[in-house]
Amino acid sequence: MSFAWAKQYEPQSAFTKWLDEKLPLPRLVYNAVGAGYPVPRNLNYMWNFGVLAGFFLVVQIVTGVVLAMHYAANGLVAFATVEHIMRDVNYGWMLRYAHANGASFFFIVIYMHIFRGFFYSSYKAPREMIWLLGVVIFLLMMATAFMGYVLPWGQMSYWGAQVITGLFSAIPLVGEPLQVWLLGGFAPDNAALNRFFSLHFLLPFVIAGVVILHIWALHIPGSSNPTGVEVKQESDTVPFHPYYTAKDGFGLGVVLILFTTMIFFLPNALGHPDNYIEANPLSTPAHIVPEWYFWPFYAILRAFTGDLTIPFTGIILVQAKLLGVIAMFGSILIWFILPWLDKSPVRSGHYRPLFRKFFWFGLIPAMAVLFYCGGAPAEQPYVVISQIATAYYFLHFLVILPIISQIEVPKPLPFSITEAVLGKDTAPEAPRTGSVDGGDAGTATDGALQPAE
Amino acid sequence: MATETAATTETFAEDGVRRRDWIHIAALGTAGVGAASVLFPLISQMSPSADVLAASSTEVDVSAIAAGQAIKASFRKQPLFIRRLTPDEIKQANEVDPSTLRDPQTLAERTKEGHEDLLVTMGVCTHLGCVPLGAAEGENRGDFGGYFCPCHGSHYDTAARIRKGPAPKNLHVPDYEFKSDAVIRVG
Amino acid sequence: MTIRLGGIIAGLAITLVLVLWSLLPGAYSYAFDPAPEQQPSAAFYEHGHGPEGGFSFDGPLGKWDYAQLQRGYQVYKEVCSACHSLKYVAFRNLQQLGYTEAEVQAEAASWTIPGIDPATGDQTTNPGKPTDAFPPVYYSGQGHPPDLSLITKARHDGSNYVYDLLTGYGEPDPAKAAKVGFETPDGLYFNKHFPNVNIAMPAPLSDGQVTYADGSANTTAAMAKDVAAFLTWTAEPSLIQRKQTGWFVIGFLLFATALAFLSYKQIWAGVKPKKK
Questions:
Q1: Is residue B156 within a helix (H) or strand (E), and if so which, with residue range?
Q2: I want to staple B133 with a disulfide (CB 3.0 to 4.6 A). Which of A110, A239, B139, C247 is the partner?
Q3: Could you tell me whether strands B70-75 and C112-116 are parallel, antiparallel, or unpaired per DSSP bridges?
Q4: Residue of C261, C264, C266 to mutate, interface with B, max B Cβ within 10 Å
Q5: Is 60 exceeded by the pLDDT of residue B14?
Q6: Rounded to an integer, what distance in angstroms lies between the CA atom of residue A247 and that of residue C264?
Q7: Separation between Cα atoms, residue C242 and residue C240, nearest integer Å
Q8: What's the CA gap between A185 and A193, in Å, rounded?
């Protein structure tokens, strides 16, 4: 893989030479995230979120392993052990709030990362495999987050477990036994809590494994970039280290400031008060909502209110409940075929006028509406609104994108990344990326240069 | 943003470190300090929590223990032996020349003044932490009439001092005080 | 190509199902059916705003008012504890309110803790020890008095909620009540700040009910504020420590991020594009 001009790892000391022969781990790191990985020079801040997602995976694993040292997955004491962590364990409150808000931040950066992919068509050849692995990671994250939310065994935990496993009961014939099997009982109890704990501990390591595959697949074609024009020459790239390590370091600082603000000043703002009430199988909270990061998909689930029948016969083909479940899972599963739905040869949304309009005025508003409706109570007008948004969501991916890719006339692409950044001699108004780095380009006056090496 | 002055006056010092490198060193150093301070809560969380520390003193009523009897109490989740010595046992303990012992101590040093007949020790063998026999009625009290640890054969005498076997120290006497003649507070 | 054709067909099918089978009937009924009737009680609910001037611990620079927390504890002990438990709080925690170790021991001993005699298996009661948690409360009347340890975190805007609830008792406006046919059901009490305005708890506080040792005001509102502050502490004893740590952490991060920004700009200065 990689480009011909990529720097080669050269061990300096006798020890690193010896290590490089026996186990070339430093070489691997050097080629993966060091100076040996040439990266397009024009990445904007949207390309920070991949590294940030990796950072939050580490945060979640570290704080999670530590919390597991104090937590007990038993319905009688689970809630009390969480309170024990909050009150008696040294810095327990800090670790638990970091874990709870870390989940939210993990999803924030992942959503930014995914929407970066939508806008810049990062899913297109030759990067389909990176995209597919990414969708797998996202599905694993959703499963992990759901099971983690059950562990405190508060009211929302309990009823979340009840409702989400209830989704599976919509499946014809095997649904009800499947739900009982998933829960290990007829309602969430010790058996369910224990298996959720076990899987919640396991899945992050599975995610870490898929992340390694994701990065591996990334290094075959190299990173995409805001122009969508592939790397052609050495001047199109800079080494990952120090250029993007420095930029990612700065991005990490900014996100950490937001993250710690949540931990220390608004730790429960993204949670639900009802989860500070211990689980009570005899009383459902007035308004059950999942965690905020599931709201768009929860809205799709609730959008299907009518059974699919054969008109005038009363024969039910598919029940509304099952339709909702299919649509909810389908709304993510269609991402798997996205690389083959959108076959436009141009990647970046910057050069696709029609695509860009549907992105900013179609997909993004639809997702925002679904997000809002998912958190709202299941009553009118939210149901009708989320139905319209759901219809648009599927139309966008399944109908609009394929048609756009046929009829759209893209804007002229720059010849190369270098040209996009530096401009052509003859055409100073050559397309700019609009990125922050690109923005800097015009203001450079000092002409400072790094030393030649 | 680097100032123009810094950029244009850029020079190489004798040791090859560029003058403006201080910013990278400062940034990395600060990041290092931050990462190190994150370790503190991660390590600290493993030490005993507030409820464990709060439970680390125990009060025991010793008035009901007759001479020659012992009870087992619990202190910091470990067994605590409290024995009322008979005059004969006190005599046996005092007959030994402390200087001949592996861990020289007199009985008086191991009891409280005015309560020389009440021997309070941890029930934890100083060898590898088993619970010695001898506190309950009818158990093997070893060759020296005190306690006997069956794990590796350590024998303790009537003052719970190590006399034979692998244990290096006498049974530990925890900090305690008499709150009244009847009640001791351990820890 | 087949995937795209299939996608278009599937997308149209899903949309068709939504539009024809759910959306149209739903939109029709939303547009033409009468709006669902509201409970008459909804007309009487008033959103509260907490005590005048807020709490001392509000905001990022908030601090505990220890005298207030001690007064709030007294209100809990003399009033609330008859029906409400506080099971996640231990007596030893009271030391954080400024009581000495001896005072905590005496305070703990003034409570009775149920236990079991190991010799007979009979239920016994012992005076509390500092390591004991507040005892459970068994309640046989109407309603289910919740445990109060976490109440200010288990309700939206909990500190203000507790204050509003305790000061929200009264009578509904008789003219309005007659108009909508609203009557407080038997055994329940009218409280304009309770979500459905009918609460099983009778007004617990009345002016002058608790006599404070420090001579502070003991109006219903003052006592409600004190006990709301105390219950905020029981729900989150680390609240103030948390905020103070936060300032330190964020200050450090601002500094580190500024350095990271300078370092980043420094490194990129060399690849700044120049017109050829």
A1: strand B154-157
A2: B139
A3: unpaired
A4: C266
A5: no
A6: 6
A7: 5
A8: 11
Token code pair at residue A335: 């991402």
Q: Which amino acid is at B4?
A: E
State whether A380 and C256 contact (CB < 8 Å): no
Candidates C222, C131, C212, C203; CA nearest to C165 is C203
Q: Any alpha helices (H) in A335-435, and if so which ranges?
A: 338-341, 353-358, 364-375, 382-395, 401-407, 417-422
Each residue of C126-159: b (16+ CB within 10 Å) or e?
A: eebbbebbbbebeeeeeeeeebbbbbbbbbeebb
* Look-up of token digits 């190489």: B12
CB < 8 Å to A445, chain B: 4
Domain limits, chain B = 4-44, 52-186
**A155-168 and A128-150 helices, crossing angle to 10°:** 130
The number of beta carbons lying within 10 Å of the beta carbon of residue A51 is 18
- The fold adopted by the segment(s) A32-272+289-434 is Cytochrome Bc1 Complex; Chain C (1.20.810)
- Among all chains, which residue has been given the structure tokens 């300078």? C262
Check: CB of residue A336 under 8 Å from CB of residue A408: no
Give the distance from residue B110's alpha carbon to the nearest chain C alpha carbon, in angstroms: 29
Ranking A402-411, B14-23, B114-123, C137-146 by mean pLDDT, the lowest is: B14-23
Q: In terms of pLDDT, which residue wins out, B116 or A101?
A: A101
Per residue in A85-131, pLDDT tens? Answer: 999 999 999 999 999 999 999 999 999 999 999 999 999 989 999 99
A313 or C231, which is more confident? C231
CA distance A329 to A170: 13
Chain B residue with minimal CA distance to C268? B1
Count how many Cα atoms sit within 13 Å of the Cα of residue B109 in the half-sphere of its side chain. 11
Spell out the CATH class of B52-186.
Answer: mainly beta
Residue of chain A with shortest Cα separation from B24: A246
- For chain C, give every domain's residue range: 1-36, 41-89+133-240
Residue A259's contacts (CB-CB under 8 Å, 6 or more residues apart) are A101, A102, A105
Chain C CB contacts of B31 under 8 Å are 256, 260
Q: What are the Cα distances from residue A418, in Å, to A33, C225, C264, C267? A: 22, 65, 20, 18
Q: Are A252 and A55 in contact (CB under 8 A)?
A: yes
Distances (CA, A) of A272 to A375, A441, C213: 11, 46, 38
In chain A, domain spans: 32-272+289-434
Both tokens assigned to A37? 């990985």
Rg (CA), chain B: 29
CB atoms within 10 A of CB B12: 10
Q: Is C92 on the interface with A (CB under 8 A)?
A: no
What ipTM does the predicted assembly reach? 0.91
**Testing the interface with B: which of A70, A77, A88 to mutate, by most B Cβ within 10 A?**
A88
Q: How far apart are CA C69 and CA C55, in angstroms?
A: 11
**A381 vs C contacts (CB less than 8 Å):** 30
Confidence at A449, pLDDT banded by 50, 70, 90: very low
B164 by DSSP, 3-state: which?
strand
Smallest Cα–Cα separation from C167: which of C231, C212, C226, C216? C226
- Report the distance separating Cα C73 and Cα C134, nearest Å: 12
pLDDT in tens, A267-294: 999 999 999 999 999 989 888 899 999 9
Q: Which residues from A are below 8 Å from C246, CB to CB?
A: 260-261, 263-265
Query: C254 — contact with chain B (CB < 8 Å)?
Result: no
Q: Which amino acid is at A92?
A: G
CB B3 within 8 A of CB A447: no
Query: Is the sign of the CA dihedral B142, B147, B151, B152 positive or negative?
Result: negative
- Chain A stretch 88-127, residues whose beta carbon is closer than 8 A to a beta carbon of chain B: 88-92, 94-95
Beta carbons within 10 angstroms of residue A378's beta carbon? 16
